[in-house]
């Protein structure tokens, strides 16, 4: 095989491997996304079972005590 042909083959192989790596990474990220979705659903189900159905609504509300109401008070 000529040196030019060998260089071309190595370049093609390198490009194929990099595209293969990107495809593998994309697939792995998709799998992780699915796992995170499943985990979020499981946590929501557990919270419902524990009687915390309104957890998301509670988390969206501001805290009951605000430093704006009492300038000298620090909330920890």
Q: What keywords describe this structure?
A:
single chain; mainly alpha; 76 residues
Regions with little confidence, pLDDT below 50 for 5+ residues: none
What series of H and E elements makes up the topology? HH
Q: Could you describe the largest sheet, including whether it forms a barrel?
A: none
Number of strands: 0
Q: Which strand-content bin applies to the residues? A: under 5%
* Helix-and-strand structural type: mainly alpha
Q: Helical content, roughly?
A: 55-70%
The gyration radius over C-alpha positions equals: 27 Å
First and last CA, distance: 73 Å
Family: Belongs to the HSBP1 family.
Keywords: Coiled coil
GO molecular function, one term: transcription corepressor activity
Coiled coil: 22-49
Structure, explained:
It contains two helices and no strands. By secondary structure, the chain is an all-alpha fold. It has a domain of 31 residues. This is Heat shock factor-binding protein 1-like. Keywords: Coiled coil.
Strand and helix map with partners:
Layout lengths: L2 H47 L5 H6 L16
Provide a concise account of the structure shown.
GO terms for molecular function: transcription corepressor activity. Helix content is 70%, strand content 0%. The protein is mainly α.
């Amino acid at each position: 095989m000529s040196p030019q042909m060998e260089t071309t083959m190595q370049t093609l192989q390198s490009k194929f491997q990099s595209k293969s790596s990107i495809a593998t990474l994309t697939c792995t990220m998709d799998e992780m996304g699915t796992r995170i979705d499943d985990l979020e659903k499981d946590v929501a189900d557990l919270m419902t079972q524990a009687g915390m159905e309104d957890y998301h609504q509670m988390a969206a509300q501001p805290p009951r005590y605000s430093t704006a109401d009492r300038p000298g008070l620090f909330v920890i």
